[in-house]
Each structure stands twice: as structure tokens, then as C-alpha cells.
Design brief:
Chain lengths: 388, 550
Amino acid sequence: MSLLRALVPAFALVAFAGAAPSRDDHASALAALADVRASVREIVAIENGYAVGHGAYLRAAHRAMNALVGRRDEAYAAGFGDPGDGVGTLGHLDRMLDQRAVWAWTPAAQGAKANVLAAAENVQSAIGQKEMEEYQADLTRALANLALVVGRPSQDGVLGGLSGALANTSLGVPSGAAQAPGCGMPARAPSYGVVNGRLTYVAVPRTSAASALPAELDVARVVVRGDDVVLYSSVSRSACSRAAHAERPRMQRARAVAAGAQPPFTSAQAHAGKAVYAKSCIQCHGADLQGAAGPSVAGTEFLTNAHRNKWSVADVRTTVFDNMPFSDPGSLSPQQYANVMAFLLASNCYRAGAKPFPTSADPSLARIAIGPHGGKPDNAKTGTCIVR
Amino acid sequence: MSRIRASVLLCVFAAATFFVVPRASAQNAWPTSDDFANAAKDAASWILPAHSYSGNRYLSETEITPANVGTLKKAWTASVDARGPLETSPIVWNGTMYVTSSHNDVYALDAKTGAQKWHFPYKPHVIAFSANRGVAIADGRVYEATLDGKLIALDAATGKQLWGVTAAHDVTNTFFTMQPVPYKNMLILGASNGDWGGIGYLSAYDAATGKRIWDWNTIPGPGEPGHETWSGDSWKRGGGAVWSGIAIDPATQTLYADAGNPQPDFLGTIRKGTNLYTNSMVALDISGAKPTLKWYRQFIPHDVHDWDPAMPPVLFTGTIGGAPRSLVAAGDKGGNFWVLDASNGNVVYKLAVSTQRGQNTAPNRTGTIACPNTNGGVEFNGGSYLAETNTFYVPSVDQCGIWKSQGTATYVSGQFYLGGAFPKLYGPSTGYVNAVDIGTGKFAWRKHLAFPQIGGALSLSPGVVFTGGVDGDFTAYDAKTGNVLWHSPTGMTIQAPPSSYVVDGKRYVAVAAGPAGVNFADPRLNQGAPTLEGRYTHATRAMITAFTLP
């Protein structure tokens, strides 16, 4: 059990009277993690055990499912018991995501939900299996999904998943706990420092912290001052070098992407993609790429809209690879799709480089934002660049 | 102010005297509530999307007959913006026709000559594809609902914009394709947000100001009946868009609408349950301050193939077992034609009008084959009931597809929320014109055609049915036999419904045609597909064509 969780009661004592919000995302995240771990325990126990007979395996899979989906879900089978708290990881995540505000941790919670859903699908599949080998393969896939929900430490000290969000973002701050300016030395403990939604430090009275260091805080530096211990996270340095201000929720989907990063593609791909576009795309998106029956796909209107909707290159890639051409989706080869993506990026005045646009899904594309980027258009009216 | 009050009084008057008001005449400056309520009896004008509130494109006039329809000639054509397919249903009043382009340009045309009176250009942001089904007119205004989520009012005399309001709740995933329907002092409009992670709603707006009067969500929220048909919080992005037309029975103040398919389209595992009221017809009591649900009929529960009930509801009195019966028809993209009891939604008949296969097989990662394809079955412009033959005419699309789903669906604003991919066409792509005998629920006749039939049907007493399809052939069928009595190649794709009107004593039949658009871009057209009239390639023009007898 992490120290952060152990600290919750201590911090509850210093909650601001009347300032406590009605929802407690921090508690929900911890509960969601607990349910995931309960589910994992069920799976690991049955896979490592020596149970004989179909019933024990069915029971384990159902119990693992129950902890994930919670009793509101149709897949919940109460008769098998629930190692979780009944709300289920999905229930807790839904509660966290059920708000218009978007926080620095929101993408992590969305990602966790996607992986829980994938895990539940695999567990569901395991429930229906007749062969042991298939059953185990399904549960192994579910475990892989759940590992992503939990997250893990890496050599850079950064965690993914829910524990990563607890360690690195304002999600690590319990409801009602004292938040102090995120940079510099806190005036009192216990308190939390938050800059732009990133958790920069946890200050704890030494008497409470003596037992253990927080397992889910990415600690880069420890400062002991009087009776307080201040644990600075690795983001504190970079976060504090910029203008510091407290996190404000944004009302749109969070940007988990880096503006200004260059999407990969080569000029040869863009050139080849021009022919693909002329054959398969031009009828709906127009010779000037400004849209006709379909929407605009390059230039000022497209980039402005992409920015407003916080699209990444991966978002656009999914639509192009999976759903285009609209009248015959999936009818082009992966190379043709990559080429047409290159053509679209070049038409949007991104610069070609040495690295080609990948022909298969690449997670790094999800971190590259699409939007106005200061490229010099050839056509001032449409804001597009001509691909030669 | 006095004008608004006057129209409210008229509504009351109309409701009280519905059955005795004489046939509306075209001498008023603009149609009144009476005219709308009695539109079925005015064969000279076309003031509602499907001529009358019943949604039935049927005229009881007898000028165009099986005997003389062969002599129909082109009277005029008028070009409109061609950046997408035309789906406009022309509105005609006092010699003026009002039509729209796919990008929301509005045109006022001389209904006798096609000459342009005014043109309102518009440049909306297009979320996914461009389409518009036409305008509404009332009280000197022309109303249009746009691709960027606005409801706008134009001066009907000049085409200048009077006002515009943002009517969509979330413009990143919601737009409008539906033709607004004037009813009393309101405009009724459904939101198109089916495949982008919104939830559907029908709304009423004050026709004078655009102010929202009510919303009715097609997906029940927490605490509402039907909410339990969605697992977890899946209802929040559950779909159920109201894309196409509605029908209203003014006598009972009942509104009939179809809510579209659930989202994510192709991934059912994250929205376990039947997913009400997606893929359902709903009958709403609209007599009060807010609509209340009278009944619903779900056609395809827990759909994972994007098989919306696309056809607008058609209210009609059919004859079954020798007795008249109040019925409402529906058609879905899953290839089913439905006839329901209009009073309670009970299924009277269900008939497959397209090839069906693999209907209960959910898409998976490797791909499953099912028919119809996602653009198959009965499409958005629907069918028509002809009283003289007691037969319902409904065009359909015959295609199969390969569906793939993913394990997850992630919402990204402004992008598809599918949990998979739109299906790839598998095998041939053809169409049918189906004639369904309402007395028996069986086919009276069927015509199998080389191209999908998506144009909507218009039936004229005593026995002519007009419709068209992807190959652009505008065709008149003998209502009794299905024989082709007349046809005219437009050289463009027809996916708009025909309408008909009279100017200076002459009857016209008009239809819009244009590019195939994103849904019906037929690979055969790239090569120049053979048609009855030669070869047809993708059209780059968009036109309204009016035909008349010599």
C-alpha cells in the first residue's frame, strides 16, 4: 500500500472547511486502482494455482470481471462474489471522467478506461472458453491490459497509468488537502504543490513520513526542513522554470500532445501520396483540399478546426487508415495510406524529413499535435502548401 | 407582435376546426397554420418536407396518369452549388421554389421557369460530410438548419439573413441535415450527431426568434425509463441521432420520429443492453409544454452495424382485411420495411426489402460479413403510400459489407466515434424498387436495378410512382405492375425525394440531382458505368430539374 494512500486520513484532518468539492477524484483513483489490483489477484491466483474443474476457473474469471466492471454493469455476476468494492474500476473511472472539466490527469484516466474495457473484453472471452489454453491466453491478454491501467516505474522515474497520474499530477492531491504555490519551499506541512496540473512536491510532517516514502510519487529530491519533509517530484524543476500558476480545468479534451513537434514523413511519400489523393480522395475533399462532399483536409480551416478539437496526428491517422475512402474504407494498402498522410501533412505545410510516416499504428503519433504551426503557405487564401 | 399573436390564435382555431376548414388556397402571402395542417389537400403547393405532416409523398391529383406520363418533358433546369450531393426537398409556394445545396446555400427559384430570384451563399465548417434536406417557410421567412449547428432565418423576399442562432448543443460533434418542420409557432428539428459521439435530440424553436422551446433527448438519462438499457455510462455518448424527417398527426398532436443507431457504432461490448431509444420509432405527445413519450418501437436492439431506421415515418390509412387502419411505416438500413399500428406501435408487418445475412454476427477484429452494408437497406428519403392501389412503394439498396470492430472506442471531439471502421463493400451494389401490398404485407412487385435506389418515392393518383437512384435515371413506374412508363437521365446522382406542384394551371414534377457524395460514390462510376442512356461518370454538377406535360 502506498504512502499516499496511508496519508489520506492525515490530510483529511487539514481539509479546508467548506472548500471541499463534492467529488473526490483522488479517492476514486485510489479505489479504481484497488479494484484493478483485486482483479489481478484473482487472475494471478487461478493461473498460478492447481485448481481442478471448470467451476474454479469460471469463478475466478467472473470475480476478476466483477471487480473491473462493478455491479451496475450487465457483465456483473453477483453469484460469484466480488473481490472489489462493488463500484468496480469502471464505475470509479466513469465517476472521474463524468465532468466537463478536463485536468492534466484526464487523458490518463481515459487511457485507463480504454484498457479496462479491453481487459473486460478479454475476461469475457475467457469466461466463454472451453479449452484451458484459450482461457489462459485470454487472461494473459487481460493482465497485459491491466498492467497498463496500473502503470509502472521506468528508468526515467515516470509512471504511466493511474499510479502515474497519482504520482505526477494533481490527482495525487486528496480532496480538501492544502495546496500551496507549486514552486519554492512550502510554508507548512502537510501540503501539496501543483503547477499546471503537475504535482511538484508533497510536504509531510516527519512524524507521518517516517514510516515509508510514497511509492507512487516520482521523487527527484528530498529536503528535510525542521519537522517537515518535502519530497520534490522530477517535474518540479521544469514546471517551476516556467510561469507558475495553479491548475485550472480546461473545458475541452486535454492536450496530451506536444505542439510544434514535427510529424514524420518524407518528401518522396508526399509526392507518391499526391497520386493516391488524386485517385481516391479528390472527389469528396476537392482539388484544393478545401472539401466538397467531405470536409476540408488542409490549410487554415482544417488546422484551426484540428487545434480546436485538440487532434493529434494519430487521431487523423485513425480516420484516414480506418474509414477512408468513405465509400470503400480500408481499400488502400498501408503504404498508400501512409503516402496520403504524408501528402496531407505536406499540404498543411509541415516539413518533410528523413523519417517516413509509419505504415502501422505508432503510439508516438498520439503525442504530436495538429494545428496552426507557422509554416509558410503557398496559397494565402486557403493556407495550403503545394506538393510537387 | 400582433402577427405572432394572430398566428397563435389561428393555431387554436385550426385545432378546433381541423376537419371542416376548407382547402387551403395559395392566396395568402405565406402559409398559415391551417395551410400546414391541411397541406395534404393542396395539390398545387408543396409547403412541408413530404408535402403534408403525414410524411407521405402522395398527391390525389389525376393530371399525370399512366397513359400520359410517357410524354413528360423537361421544363427547366437550375444549377446550384455542386460541392456535395443534393438531398433537398423543394418547397413551393405562390410560384416560388426554395431549395438548398449540400453546403447550405439557399436558392429561391421561379417555379415556372427555374430563373433564380435570389441566392444565399453560406460557408459552414463541415464536420464529416455535407448534406442538407431543405428549408421551411413561414411568415415571410425561410429557415435552414446548417452544417455548423445553426438555425438561420432569411427574409423570404430578399434572401438576406434576419437572424441565426447556434442550435446544436455541441458544435464539435453535432450538425444539422434535417429540413426544419413548422408546427404552430415552432420549428421542429432533429440533431445529426450519430457517428461522432453525441446523443440525439429533437428540439422545438420559436419560429419568430429561434429561441429554444424544448428538447427531447433520444437517450434516457439517469432516473428516466429506459436508462437501464445502457451499461455503465455508455449512454452519455450513445448516439440516437434524429437525422431525417418526422411525421405529425395534428388531430392527436402526436409526433412520430425515428432515432438513429447507437454509438460507438460497431462496438457493442461497452454499451451492453438494448440501448433505448436508438433504432426506434418514438411517438411523442407534443400537446403540452414538453413532449411526453406515448410509445416506442425498437426495430434493431443493440445494433452493431449502423442500421438506423433511416426512412422518415409515413402515416397513412391502409386497408387490411377490408377495413381502414391507421398505420405508420418505417424502413431501416438493416433492410427491413415495417408497418406499425399508429396508435400503439405494434408491428403489423415486417418485410425484408434487401438481402439479409449475418445480421446477428457482431463485428470483430478480423472482420465479419453482414448484409445489408451500412449504406444498404432503406435510405433517408423513403417511401410513399398510394391509396388507389393500397400499396407502399419503397426504394432500397442491396449491398453487403465486411465489418471490423476494435476492442475499444475513444472519444475525440470532431472525429468518428465508431469503435471500429465503416464496412468495406463486399460483392455487388444494386438496388430495388419495392411495392408492398398493405393488404397482405407481401410484395405486389419488385424491380431489381443495377444501382442503389436512394432517391425517395412520390406517388400520384391514379397510379404513377416516381423515384431515382445513384445512376441518375429519374423514372416513372406503373404503380400496379412496376413497368417503366417513362424515364429521364439526369446525368447526376439522385438521392433527393421528388416533389410536385402547379403553376399557372400546369403541373410540374421536380427533383434534385448532383454528385454522388461520400456515401454513394460508386467505384463503377470512375470507369463510366453503363446505364440505359449510355455511360455515366461521377457528376460535377448539381441541378434542380422540373418536368411537365406538353
